[in-house]
Amino acid sequence: MRKLKLLLIILLVGCTLEKKETQISIQDRQIMINDVPYFIKGICYHPVPKGSESRDFSSLTEDLEIMKEAGINTIRVYEPITEEWVLNEIAEAGLKVIIGFGYNQGGNYDILSGTFVDYIEMFKDHKSILMWELGNEYNYHPEWFEGDIKNWYTRLEAATKLIHRIDSKHPVTTAHGELPDSLALAMAPSIDVWGMNVYRWDNPETIYEQWASVSDKPMYLSEAGGDSYMTISRDGYEEGVSEKAQEDANRNILEDVFRNKEIGSGVALFQFTDGWWKAGNPETQDPGGWAPNSSGVPYDGTPNEEYWGIVDIDRNKKATFSVVKEIYTQY
């Protein structure tokens, strides 16, 4: 009988600990896990191999080891991870993931079809999940919403409320292009954490004071960073491949982020690996590419889309990796 009681106690303690591991909440301007402030030391992650245009997690084990070395604690993905083994491995590595949902993905767990709810129902108890994220810079694309961005904000608010009804364990966020204006804030009041894709050269610091003046909710930089290619010679950086430009820009950006922890809840640096699929032949690394509102990209005002990784496509560490590791592991 004593052994049975002891076994029951162990099981109850284990259940309590497991429950605490997934206790995510919002308190004032902070994201909390088990009542402890959680600061996002993040990376945007969309691994596409050479010659392909499709996401592929075959390098996940190696990638997670590199991320852990860099002090990364959070992965941000732009579309749902449907492979449960991937979520399991992320959780086992001790990282959290922000799951992004697109608006129109052909009915594949997207917002338009409402099938994103099916995904949340399947994985809302998975210990890897940090937040659900709705959309990425959609405020730059009113043409996707019958020419009226209000249509997006209406659908964003409705989707947020729906998630709150089916999952009380995880906050809902959105990746907004730059600082949300009064229209966005008024039409989507149920968003728990505002993500902002911010490219203000190598100094995003002003976003924090601006945010504090319009909202008391948590925020994080859902994208920020610099690429390793200079389209022109400028500020002492030569035209062409320039890991030094990326290294310097990311140091300045990350230092700003960590100086403003009283307002911001972290950053998802863009991005983990170079993406050869984005601007030309996926068999080669090409300069160029396009992104909306990208004139603030350091230090040439041009988003050379295939040069943003902290590692290259073969997982060789670029110069900026040491900066990320230094800052993420120091704080």
Describe the structure.
The chain is an alpha/beta fold and 331 residues long. The protein has one domain: Glycosidases (TIM Barrel), CATH 3.20.20.80. The protein has nine helices and 13 strands. The strands form three sheets. Strands 4-5-6-7-8-9-10-13 form an eight-stranded parallel beta barrel, surrounded by four helices. It has a three-stranded antiparallel beta sheet with strand order 1-2-3, with no helix packed on it. Strand 6, helix 4 (116-123) and strand 7 form a beta-alpha-beta unit.
Number of helices: 9
Instruction: Tell me the strand percentage band.
Output: 15-25%
Q: Quick check: average pLDDT?
A: 94
Question: N-to-C terminal Cα separation, in Å?
Answer: 49 Å
Low-confidence stretches: 1-20
Query: How many strands in all?
Result: 13
Topology order in helix (H) and strand (E) letters: HEEEEHEHEHEHEHEHEEEHEH
Which structural class do the helices and strands define? alpha/beta
Q: What is the CATH topology descriptor?
A: TIM Barrel
What order do the strands of the largest sheet run in, or round the barrel if closed? 4-5-6-7-8-9-10-13
The CATH class is identified as Alpha Beta
State the fourth-level CATH superfamily. Glycosidases
How many domains in all? 1
The CATH architecture would be Alpha-Beta Barrel
